[in-house]
Structure formats: C-alpha cells, structure tokens
Design brief:
By secondary structure, the protein is an alpha+beta fold. It has nine helices and nine strands.
Length: 228
C-alpha cells in the first residue's frame, strides 16, 4: 500500500468503529484517530505499518484537568497531556475479572504490549469491530466508569500500587505523578503511606523519586490543597 491507500484504510477502520462510539457519546477526532468523551479517550492511531498491513494498538486514556493543571504548575518546563493511559489488552482485562474473550485469529495480544490489530485492504472489519466492542463493553467502559472522578482516579492508581505485583510493568511515570498529585489534591490521610510504598517500588529511580518530592514540596509550600 502507498501512503494514500494507508490513509484511506485508516479512515475506513475509524468509520467502522464510529457507530459504536457515537452510541456511547464519543466523538471522533479524525486527525489523530481518537474517540473522545468528557475526559476519556480511546486512541486508534496507527502504531506501525508496512507495505501490506497497518497495525492498530488501541489505548484507553484519561484526562483529569485539575491533575494536569497541578502538574503543570509543579513542573513548569514539562507538558502533561494525559492522567492515565492503559493499553487495551489482557492485563487491563484481568483487573476487571475478564480472563477470556475472543480475539481475531490474526490478532496478537502480548501480555505487556496490549492487543494489536493487523489490517489490510481485504480484512473483514466487522470482526475487528465486534472484537473491540466486546472488549470495551466488558473492560474499557467499566474502566472509564471506575476513573470518572478525582477520587476514582486516586483509588484506582493507589490500589494498583499496593495490590498489583506487576504494577511496574503496566504503570509508568505519568501515572505515578498523577496519583501523588491526586492524593494531595484530596488531602488524603494516607499520603505518607502512599509515598513510602512508591519509594519502595521505585527505589533507585532517583529521577522519579525527585519528581515525587517536588510535588510534595509544592503542596507543603502552599499549605493546603487546591481541591475541596
């Protein structure tokens, strides 16, 4: 496929998914292939391509403005666009008690890298849509419901840090800093417990630990959280 054919195929995939997402109140940003609704995003950009196929690796993202604005105040030189971003795949599914669901035969579901949809001009997109809708109904939409507030975001992330032994494989720096910021914004009584746990998990990662301390110092200097 040349670049024009790839763009057409990409648009065809997005169009095939549009009915489901519109029925749930999402709108498609055609430029980057993202379905958006009230701070929730499902990214369907092309993750890779070759002469015969294009590949999609969907991800589920959350944008909480008060967290992002706070991090921007703390780290003036850095940009913070997302609060949480998780790959759609079996790791996230298992968190919601979903251990078995149908994948298309030519799909790959890597434990740590999520589900990849391989698409060419002959692919039956109805199967791709059915597969993804099934995942969203069982996993994606419940995930968004769980993190639909500042309190929900904090509880979801902190539970992962305390209860999920594989958390370092699925959670990155973005989520760590978002969780710390949320804990201070909520004036949570377990802030120090959370910080100790994160220091244990990320011992030796001075870059991340230093940034956590910057958030702590920011709120200590202010004397009170933004959130009420």
């Amino acid at each position: 496929m040349n670049s024009t054919e790839q763009k057409r195929l990409r648009a065809k995939v997005h169009e095939a998914l549009l009915f489901f997402y519109e029925s749930k109140g999402f709108k498609l940003s055609k430029t980057n292939g993202v379905f958006k609704k009230d701070g929730f995003e499902v990214e369907w950009g092309v993750s890779a391509k070759n002469i015969d196929y294009i590949y999609f690796n969907p991800s589920l993202c959350v944008v909480e403005d008060i967290v992002q604005n706070t991090l921007q105040l703390v780290f003036e030189e850095k940009k913070f666009g997302l609060t949480i971003c998780r790959l759609a795949g079996c790791r996230l599914a298992q968190e919601f008690g979903v251990h078995e669901y149908d994948y298309l035969g030519d799909n790959e579901d890597d434990v740590d890298n999520g589900t990849t949809y391989k698409v060419d001009q002959e692919s039956d997109l109805s199967k791709l849509v059915a597969d993804h809708v099934n995942y969203m109904e069982k996993v994606g939409l419940p995930f968004f419901e769980k993190v639909n507030s500042l309190q929900g975001i904090y509880k979801y992330l902190s539970d992962l840090f305390f209860k999920n032994e594989k958390v370092k494989k699925i959670i990155g720096k973005r989520e760590v800093l978002s969780c710390v910021a949320a804990s201070y914004l909520l004036n949570d009584s377990d802030i120090e417990k959370l910080l100790r746990r994160l220091e244990e998990l990320y011992a030796g990662n001075t870059y991340l630990l230093d940034d956590m301390q910057k958030i702590k110092q920011y709120f200590e200097n202010k004397g009170s959280p933004h959130w009420s």
